[in-house]
């Protein structure tokens, strides 16, 4: 910001400080001026000359002062403008300089990274090159040591030495050295040639060839994909071995020496080789005549590196043919035939071309065997390294008797040296020697160029083909520093460097350069430039705004100065302005000192503890001062705590919550707690009650702090009563969403009054806490209380009576025992006992504006809708109860979710050709005479996985179902509810309990415990994994709907007796169902007939798009409902066999295996859900166990059961646990699709079994006493 002229400062300060006084002084000044003018006029008349002269001088002086001020202001304005342009130019220059600096830094960083990366890559390449002779060739020389040792140990005279297990040893040496071919050549003189050719080569020592063939067949050296020649063992014919004479190579190809051959010895025939080529060819080839390096290695007793050996490049038409893989195989086979087949017509290929084709084929086979994949030799350089072999280990007295030759393919040594992210390194291999063989048929070059792209090496071609612009970056390596080749002996073998020296040169390429040089420097430079330009633009805008404001301030200052100047003399005006300026400076110093003290002392240390605590509570955790981030001594930290002598503490707990939550999904548990505690918090805010915390299902609150409340006990009593009323309203409404038994939940409240220590416990998560005996006693009031009761202590009772609310309280008949306090007299209070209090509370709710929380309003609307719906009559004409109607709505909501998933899938489907036409009826009824039992299938065929359907089903919440179909669904469920008998156990409420357990298990299937690594799996993968994990159950909403619907209908019209008794009472049903699962088949047929009724046509069209879906829905219903008959021994035996087939057999296909497992899992879901009370909390088990006992006892008393259940109930339950429930829970775990729910079921089953074993007999007696009391008139 450009500074304003200095004159404006005093005027601006006066404007801010004296604005109020200016008006008063202005009025006074106007009066003073009038008086002054009158006096001046009188004086003028008496002496006008003096006065006029004086006034004229004053005016001239004032005019000169104004001109001077205007000149000064103009100069300052010019200075400010010059400064403005200077700043603008500096910013532009800074932008330019910084942009250049950023560009240079980023460019240099790229260049530095480029050089470092290149140096590292070049170092890797040169190290790999040096390693060839330093370590890898040592594996070959060790083979020479083995030959020397073998000759000595077996007392063999050279050249008649054959190394045992040569292939095994050589294979290891080839792997360690990286060579592609290895052979040794003993020295055969003219004197030993006849014995070598006529006796040794064809004698017993030649068995190594058969051993080599057997070994190569065993390890599969030539067995790999797309291999173009059959190298399986073919015994060498004896007549061919008899003709194996020493032979050498000529320019015309391979030629065997005749007996009259004029070639004089000595000879070096190739003897043992690895790998052994087909038929043992190349054995007995004399290399001494055609290899200078072999002669040199033999004569100098040192390791000699041969020159580059390359076959000629193929013609262009041959290269084109290589693109056809099938043709390549045929061509390879023909080329190999030219080398190995004696009947080949050599007249078709002559001279160098013939030899290159033959040699290419051999080298391709060697490379293929080395790489274990079909490899085409591309004319890349190959060198032969010659190792001398001696007749003893005595370095002073030893004679060279043979040479070992290793063929090395140079490109193999650079493969895999660099990582994949290093691309575009170029190497040039140079040699300083001529043709080792003295041939002209080979294509020779003093250099060869390769490109390295990551782990791959690509030949470029003969000669030095590197880019000359990278000459200054060359990195070189050679073998000149190597003196000896390690072979396991003391000094190793000397390395001969005068014959042939191989040099390596490493260069970068344009590809490598470009991978480290991109547009990042330019982008960064432009970004910096843009930022500066934006800053300059903002500066100009800001400067313009400041200039406008400055003008306004200047105008106001000029006006103020004019007013002050007109009111006060000049000296007085100056003193006033100087005093105001000094005062402002003093104010600044004072405020700075005050702020400094605040920072140092935090201010809060001087507050009373209660003030500090109040500040924390009201200020959302702030203690009144800034917290120092630096660590301090904990003993020097003043705690935020205080004693509040007059408080009332409340503890509230949901009665039956633990048992209720054991039957629910975790999400449903949190819906309940969140709905209740949100409503309680709103009441607490309105009643001025301080909520302390919630622990699980416990709610803790206090009155009397942080502000004292004289009627704290009465306020808390009202709060408790209102919370209890709200609790009853909410759980009744929530039953339509959270399922059966929710409406039966209630609360216990405990209140106690007294002194409380309250404070903030600091730490990672600071918390407000209550301490003291009052808190402990309030907790005892709650724990010893009774559901739907508010229990208060004597002290709280006294305060309530003192507050004029004695009518609320009644003494508890019995005393309670509190730990450390003995027996206490307590009281139950009912704040709504006074007439009109309930109405007052309700009105208070309405006046609060919200009518309760959002959840309450939503639930109330749902409740109103339920009441408005017509009630269905049960058998006997009795309408559904209010609770049953809420359960109907809960079932409808549950089924509605699955129907919406079906609708979501169909809305995404583009093809409707297979859908049932609107003119065609959607109906299925079993053929006449066929029962549901006849339809039971061993395997339910589920649809295949579809990612599109899976994704569509996940977006079901935005789908709207046809209102007509939804209304028919509600009517269907209500009708099914009305078809249930009023049994103690087999009733609609139990069907809802089974449905809830089924839905919980299905939820566990829908969220399997699959470990998915973030960032590594796609949506398609995750969905497919879930489909496989759940055997396809959760991928099909129709199957899920059928399972839930089966749980709802599985006991329709159950008569409260067993199938045996039902067959006696209903012989028509017995005959209809062939006395098999009579009750289950009857329930299924009744529900199916109802679903097929004409009035549910719209619902069926919503559920089933095709006849296949209708039949699959029917199939799931049949299997699931009939699976609830667990007492049919024949069916149980079939189920056990099917389990073994699904989880133990490997004879099924993947799809059959998956469908069979899915069928078993589905049936186990309904079986576990049907007896789910045995695998839930003890209170849930007791509730339904009692109801079942009552049902059977009533049947016994009515003559519908042969045996009194009380005589076998105790042992029968233990047997039921041991023989059915616990094995069933273990099978749920073995299904591996239910996650932690299977463990939960098993744990509850074991706990309930142990608890029943301990208390079962007593419980049976108590149930008999209950029934006896019912029978009393």
From TrEMBL:
The keyword Transmembrane helix applies. Residues 648-782 form the Guanylate cyclase domain. It comes from the Eukaryota. It holds the Pfam family PDEase_I. Residues 598-607, 835-848 have a biased composition (Polar residues). GO terms for biological process: intracellular signal transduction; receptor guanylyl cyclase signaling pathway. The chain crosses the membrane at residues 86-106, 522-542. Residues 1-20, 35-72, 579-607, 829-860, 906-930 are annotated as: Disordered. Keywords: Lyase, Membrane, Nucleotide-binding, Receptor, Transmembrane, Transmembrane helix. It is found in: Membrane. Residues 904-1126 form the PDEase domain. GO terms for cellular component: plasma membrane. SUPFAM superfamilies: HD-domain/PDEase-like, Nucleotide cyclase. SMART domains: CYCc (SM00044), HDc (SM00471). One of its GO terms (molecular function) is adenylate cyclase activity. Residues 54-72, 584-597 have a biased composition (Basic and acidic residues). Its main location: membrane. This is Receptor-type guanylate cyclase gcy. It comes from Seminavis robusta. The lineage of its organism: Eukaryota, Sar, Stramenopiles, Ochrophyta, Bacillariophyta.
């Amino acid at each position: 910001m450009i500074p304003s002229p200095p004159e404006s400062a005093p005027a601006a300060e006066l404007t801010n400080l004296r604005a109020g006084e200016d008006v008063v002084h202005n009025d006074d000044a106007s009066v003073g001026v009038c008086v002054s003018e009158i006096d001046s006029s009188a004086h003028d008349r008496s002496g006008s000359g003096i006065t006029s002269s004086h006034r004229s001088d004053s005016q001239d002086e004032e005019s000169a002062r104004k001109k001077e001020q205007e000149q000064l202001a103009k100069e300052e304005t010019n200075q400010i403008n010059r400064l403005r342009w200077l700043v603008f130019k500096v910013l532009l220059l800074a932008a330019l300089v910084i942009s250049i600096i950023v560009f240079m830094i980023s460019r240099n960083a790229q260049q530095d990274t480029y050089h470092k990366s290149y140096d590292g890559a070049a170092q890797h390449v040169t190290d790999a090159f040096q390693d060839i002779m330093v370590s890898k060739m040592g594996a070959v020389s060790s083979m020479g040591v083995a030959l020397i040792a073998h000759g000595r140990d077996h007392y063999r005279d050279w050249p008649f030495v054959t190394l045992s297990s040569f292939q095994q040893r050589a294979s290891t040496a080839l792997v360690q050295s990286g060579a592609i071919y290895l052979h040794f050549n003993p020295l055969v003189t003219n004197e030993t040639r006849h014995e070598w050719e006529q006796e040794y080569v064809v004698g017993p020592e030649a068995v190594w060839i058969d051993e080599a063939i057997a070994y190569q067949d065993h390890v599969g050296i030539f067995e790999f994909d797309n291999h173009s020649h059959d190298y399986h063992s073919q015994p060498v014919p004896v007549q061919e071995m008899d003709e194996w004479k020493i032979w050498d190579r000529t320019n015309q190809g391979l030629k065997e020496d005749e007996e009259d051959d004029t070639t004089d010895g000595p000879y070096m025939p190739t003897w043992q080789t690895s790998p052994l080529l087909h038929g043992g060819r190349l054995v007995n080839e004399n290399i001494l005549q055609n290899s200078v390096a072999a002669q040199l290695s033999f004569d100098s007793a040192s390791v000699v590196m041969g020159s580059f050996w390359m076959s000629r490049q193929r013609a262009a038409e041959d290269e084109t043919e290589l693109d056809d893989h099938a043709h390549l195989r045929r061509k390879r086979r023909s080329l190999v035939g030219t080398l190995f087949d004696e009947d080949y017509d050599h007249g078709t290929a002559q001279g160098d071309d013939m030899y290159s084709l033959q040699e290419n084929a051999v080298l391709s086979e060697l490379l293929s065997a080395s790489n274990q994949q079909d490899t085409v030799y591309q004319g890349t350089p190959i060198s032969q390294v010659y190792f001398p072999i001696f007749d003893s280990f005595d370095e002073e007295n030893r004679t060279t008797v043979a040479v070992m030759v290793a063929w090395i393919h140079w490109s193999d040594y650079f493969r895999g040296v660099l990582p994949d992210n290093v691309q575009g390194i170029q190497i040039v291999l140079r040699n300083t020697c001529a043709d080792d063989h003295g041939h002209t048929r080979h294509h020779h070059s003093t250099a060869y160029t390769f490109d390295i792209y990551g782990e791959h090496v690509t030949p470029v071609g003969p000669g030095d083909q590197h880019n000359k612009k990278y000459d200054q970056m060359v990195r070189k390596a050679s073998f000149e520093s190597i003196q000896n080749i390690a072979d396991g002996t003391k000094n190793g073998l000397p390395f001969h460097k005068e014959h042939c020296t191989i040099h390596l040169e490493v260069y970068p390429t344009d590809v490598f350069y470009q991978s480290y040089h991109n547009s990042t420097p330019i982008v960064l430079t432009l970004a910096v430039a843009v930022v500066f330009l934006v800053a300059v633009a903002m500066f100009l805008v800001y400067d313009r705004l400041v200039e406008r404001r400055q003008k306004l301030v200047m105008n106001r200052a000029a006006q103020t100065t004019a007013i002050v100047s007109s009111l006060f003399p000049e000296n007085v005006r100056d003193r006033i302005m100087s005093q105001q300026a000094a005062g402002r400076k003093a104010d600044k110093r004072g405020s700075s000192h005050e702020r400094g003290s605040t920072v140092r002392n935090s201010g809060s240390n001087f507050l009373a503890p209660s003030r500090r605590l109040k500040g924390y509570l009201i200020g959302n955790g702030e203690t009144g001062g800034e917290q120092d981030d630096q660590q301090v001594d904990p003993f020097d930290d003043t705690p935020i705590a205080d004693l509040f002598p007059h408080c009332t503490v409340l503890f509230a707990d949901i009665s039956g919550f633990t048992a209720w939550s054991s039957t629910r999904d975790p999400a449903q548990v949190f819906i309940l707690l969140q709905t209740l505690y949100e409503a309680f918090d709103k009441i607490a805010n309105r009643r001025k009650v301080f909520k302390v915390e919630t622990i699980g299902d416990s709610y803790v609150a206090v009155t009397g702090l942080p502000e004292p409340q004289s009627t704290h006990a009465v306020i808390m009593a009202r709060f408790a009563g209102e919370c209890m009323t709200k609790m009853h309203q909410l759980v009744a409404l929530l039953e339509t969403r959270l399922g059966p038994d929710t409406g039966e939940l209630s609360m216990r409240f405990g209140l106690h009054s007294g002194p409380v220590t309250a404070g903030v416990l600091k730490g990672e998560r600071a918390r407000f806490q209550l301490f003291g005996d009052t808190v402990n006693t309030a907790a005892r009031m709650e724990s010893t209380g009774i559901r739907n009761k508010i229990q208060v202590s004597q002290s709280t009772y006294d305060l309530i009576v003192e507050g004029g609310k004695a009518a609320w309280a009644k003494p508890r008949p019995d005393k309670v025992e509190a730990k450390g306090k003995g027996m206490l007299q307590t009281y139950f209070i009912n704040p709504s006992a006074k007439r009109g209090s309930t109405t007052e509370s309700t009105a208070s709710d309405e006046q609060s504006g919200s009518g309760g929380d959002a959840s309450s309003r939503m639930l109330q609307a749902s409740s109103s809708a339920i009441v408005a719906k017509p009630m269905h009559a049960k058998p006997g004409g009795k309408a559904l109860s209010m609770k049953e109607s809420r359960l109907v709505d809960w079932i409808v909501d549950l089924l509605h979710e699955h129907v919406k998933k079906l609708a979501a899938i169909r809305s995404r489907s583009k093809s409707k050709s297979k859908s049932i036409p609107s003119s065609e009826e959607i109906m299925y009824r079993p053929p006449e005479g066929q029962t549901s039992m006849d339809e039971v299938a061993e395997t339910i065929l589920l649809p295949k996985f579809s990612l599109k359907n899976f994704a569509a089903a996940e977006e079901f919440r935005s789908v709207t179902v046809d209102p007509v179909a939804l209304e028919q669904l509600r009517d269907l469920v209500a009708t099914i509810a009305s078809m249930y008998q009023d049994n103690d156990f087999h009733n609609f409420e139990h069907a809802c309990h089974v449905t809830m357990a089924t839905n919980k298990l299905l939820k566990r299937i829908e969220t399997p415990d699959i470990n998915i690594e973030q960032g590594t799996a796609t949506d398609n993968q995750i969905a497919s994994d879930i489909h496989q994990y759940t055997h396809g159950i959760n991928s099909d909403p129709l199957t899920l709907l059928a399972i839930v619907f089966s749980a709802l209908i599985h006991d329709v019209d159950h008569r409260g007796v067993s199938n045996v008794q039902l067959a006696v009472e209903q012989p028509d049903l017995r005959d209809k169902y062939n006395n098999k699962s009579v009750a289950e088949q009857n329930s299924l047929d009744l529900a199916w007939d109802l679903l097929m009724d004409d009035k549910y046509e719209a619902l069926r069209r919503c559920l089933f798009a095709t006849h296949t879906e209708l039949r699959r829905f029917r199939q799931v219903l049949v299997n699931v409902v009939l699976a609830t008959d667990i007492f049919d021994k024949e069916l149980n035996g079939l189920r056990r066999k099917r389990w073994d087939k699904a989880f133990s057999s490997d004879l099924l296909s993947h799809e059959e295996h998956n469908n069979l497992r899915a069928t078993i899992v589905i049936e186990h879901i309904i079986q576990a859900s049907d007896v789910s009370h045995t695998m839930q909390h003890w209170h849930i088990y007791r509730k339904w166990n009692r109801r079942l006992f009552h049902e059977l006892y009533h049947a016994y008393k009515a003559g519908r059961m042969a045996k009194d259940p009380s005589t076998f109930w105790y042992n029968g339950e233990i047997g039921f646990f041991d023989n059915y429930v616990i094995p069933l829970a273990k099978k749920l775990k073995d299904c591996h699709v239910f996650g932690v729910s299977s463990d939960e079921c098993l744990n509850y089953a074991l706990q309930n079994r142990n608890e029943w074993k301990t208390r079962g007999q007593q419980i049976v007696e108590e149930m008999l006493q209950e029934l006896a009391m019912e029978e009393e008139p």
